[in-house]
């Protein structure tokens, strides 16, 4: 059975990967003129704190995953076994992303200028790829467990990827505020609202496919039956109020409505409200999915 440590890993690792991908994309969009002669203070404060937060989230997620495994002596085998599996790919991606985040944090704190634009773009391209892989892997981590039928669906990895990217997009303006860069970067960060709305729309579609498709499957085998029972538990079981009110309502529909229905340029309080809703919804969504899959009856049906 999986414990709360796995839920924390799926959340912290996913959000860390999503924030990493968003920061890398924004770093690639910084005008060359703003970096060639001297790194502007606004960029320095924003990216230094952003990469620090991403590294902290990834490190905390790795600790949660390690705490859940309990098999500490076998940890080196993830890197030395020589076999390419979802687990080893995920371990490498997490280690690479964490190391790159720390390197990027040092760069943005210490660098005076960018001497090679090609190296700069290659490094942040690697960070973008590592962040996407880590966020995607949090879904593959569960989907690669066929014994738990509810998780064994191709829609789980894209669901977790969209959720992670949405969290990264929602947290980015708060990172700018914490780094003292909000006045300088507010105008540049406001288009993130439209991007986040599109990502939330895709997340809602993936979540609907994860929950609804098993209910429409008329298969009589134990695997299909286990998926139906788990999906029914999410949609109409004891945890249904949490799923519909906190995850779908407050975590997805409400922030999407706020972003689509805004009448004026979004302010910092607007971003703060959206960030709280999106991040809390992402955590509870992972809890609902893990809890439904590890329900004793459902778990035994899928074995």
What does this structure look like?
The chain has 303 residues and is mainly α. The protein has a single domain (4-302), classed as Formate dehydrogenase/DMSO reductase domain (Formate dehydrogenase/DMSO reductase fold, Up-down Bundle), CATH 1.20.1630. Helices cover 79% and strands 0% of the residues. The chain has 13 helices and no strands. It has helices at residues 4-28, 33-36, 41-69, 77-80, 86-110, 117-143, 156-178, 182-189, 192-216, 222-236, 240-260, 268-293, 296-302. Helix 1 packs across helix 7 and helix 3 (41-69) packs antiparallel against helix 5. The radius of gyration is 20 Å and the shape is globular. The model is unreliable at 296-303 (pLDDT under 50).
Q: Architecture in CATH?
A: Up-down Bundle
Whole-number total of structural domains: 1
> Which structural category do the helix and sheet elements fall into?
mainly alpha
**How many DSSP H or I helices?**
13
> In terms of per-residue confidence, which ranges show pLDDT below 50 for 5 or more consecutive residues?
296-303
The amount of beta strand, in percent, is under 5%
Task: Specify the helix fraction band.
Answer: over 70%
């Amino acid at each position: 059975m999986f414990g709360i440590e796995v839920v924390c890993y799926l959340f912290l690792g996913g959000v860390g990967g999503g924030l990493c991908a968003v920061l890398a994309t924004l770093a690639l969009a910084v005008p060359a003129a703003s970096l060639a002669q001297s790194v502007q203070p606004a960029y320095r404060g924003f990216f230094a704190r952003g990469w620090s937060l991403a590294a902290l989230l990834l490190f905390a997620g790795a600790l949660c995953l390690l705490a859940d495994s309990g098999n500490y002596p076998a940890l080196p085998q993830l890197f030395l076994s020589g076999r390419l599996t979802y687990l080893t790919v995920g371990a490498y991606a997490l280690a690479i992303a964490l190391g790159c985040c720390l390197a990027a944090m040092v760069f943005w704190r210490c660098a005076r200028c960018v001497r090679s634009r090609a190296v700069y773009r290659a490094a942040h391209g690697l960070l973008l790829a590592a962040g996407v892989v880590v966020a995607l892997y949090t879904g593959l981590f569960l989907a690669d467990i066929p014994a738990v039928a509810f998780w064994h669906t191709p829609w789980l990895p894209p669901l977790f990827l969209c959720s992670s990217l949405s969290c990264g997009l929602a947290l980015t303006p708060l990172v700018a505020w914490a780094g003292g860069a909000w006045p300088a970067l507010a105008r540049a960060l406001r288009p993130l609202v439209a991007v986040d709305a599109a990502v939330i729309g895709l997340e809602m579609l993936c979540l609907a496919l994860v929950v609804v498709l098993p209910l429409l499957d008329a298969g009589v085998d134990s695997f299909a039956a286990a998926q139906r029972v788990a999906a029914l538990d999410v949609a109409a079981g004891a945890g249904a109020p949490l799923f519909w009110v906190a995850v779908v309502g407050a975590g997805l529909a409400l922030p999407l409505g706020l972003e689509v229905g805004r009448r004026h340029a979004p302010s910092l309080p607007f971003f703060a409200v959206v960030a709280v809703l999106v991040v809390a919804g992402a955590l509870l969504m992972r809890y609902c999915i893990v809890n439904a899959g590890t329900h004793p009856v459902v778990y035994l049906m899928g074995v």
